[in-house]
Amino acid sequence: MTPNQIREAAEFLMAARAARRREPNLPEALRPKTEAEATAIGGYIMAANTKPIVGWKIGATADAAQKAMGLAGPFVGCLTADMIDGNDVTYKHADLMGPIVESEYAFRMNADLPPKAEAYTRAEVEAAVGSLIIGFEIPERRLADDHTLGAYGSLSDHGGTGRYVIGAEFTDWQDKDCANIEVVLTYSGVEKGRGKGAAMMGHPLEALTWFANYLSARGLTLEAGQFVTTGSATGVLPCPEPCVAIADFGPLGQVKATFA
Predict the structure, then answer these.
(1) How confident is the model at residue 123 (pLDDT cuts 50, 70, 90)?
(2) Which stretches of 72-144 are DSSP H helices?
């Protein structure tokens, strides 16, 4: 794709996002054919953001997700304040754009991690963490369910960023076993998925370390106060109709969102 095609594809998706509409597909001339092209489209959308970034998402941190999507590695997106909601939020299902529910651990930073020549170690990243969050990422989709781009559609659409629900937040996070606690997601009482934080590169902190180095390599700072959500413990599950979604994080509590 040419730079103009990347820009035009990004602007097409940005217009759909602004209008709150889903498009059948990207126009044929603007469809990415490689992971790099799709990433460039999503990167253009992120670069065009003018709102303060309060959080970041990492998608496809689990090996199984990368294999299912045919991707070489994770992808990222930024979150702004207007995307964030509190626990037990209610949405009008019809107002959302193909919502998906993902049960996720996130970390809020207590110190900046600026760019540096050497890679950050997990210990360095861990020392900069201020709290652990349990939450829902609720991606939305600007392209129809039957578009022809596969995973490239998500990458082009800025990782499908939509809403994020912050549940409990723990400042005494170091003793919380976010790798091995089993997380169970239900829709109106029916189990839809279960899993553990260990799916995120072995531990959610490993995913956070990967992300800190991803930003550093691009000359960007992971800032104090921002949070990073590290990938779904319970799978990537579309929410096709109204329901009550609850993720049970065991001793850490529950996250709830009602889609009315």
Answers:
(1) very high
(2) 122-127
Q: How far is CA 201 from CA 19, 173, 184, 204, 220, in A?
A: 36, 19, 19, 7, 22
**pLDDT of residue 63 exceeding 90:** no
What is the Cα–Cα distance from 93 to 198, expressed in whole angstroms? 31
Distances 197 to 49, 73, 99, 186, 207 between C-alpha atoms, Å: 30, 18, 22, 17, 10
- Which of 248, 254, 242 is closest to 91 using CA atoms? 242
Q: 237 with 138: CB under 8 angstroms?
A: no
Q: Tokens 């979604």: give the residue.
A: 245
Q: What are phi and psi of 79, to 5 degrees?
A: -120, 135
Residues 6 or more apart in contact with residue 57 via CB below 8 angstroms: 76, 77, 78, 79, 137, 159, 161, 164, 228, 229
User: Is the pTM of the predicted complex or chain greater than 0.90?
Assistant: yes
Half-sphere exposure at residue 236, Cβ-oriented, CA atoms within 13 angstroms: 19
Sole residue written with tokens 């997106």:
77
Q: Residue 73 above 90 pLDDT? A: no
Please give the Cα distance from 245 to 43 (Å, whole number).
30
H/E stretch holding 238:
strand 237-238
Angle at 57 between CA 56 and CA 61, to 5 degrees: 140
253: left (phi over 0), alpha (psi -120 to 50) or beta: left
DSSP 119: P
For residue 71, the cross-strand partners are none
- Per DSSP, the three-state class of 31 is coil
| Amino acid identity at 20 | R
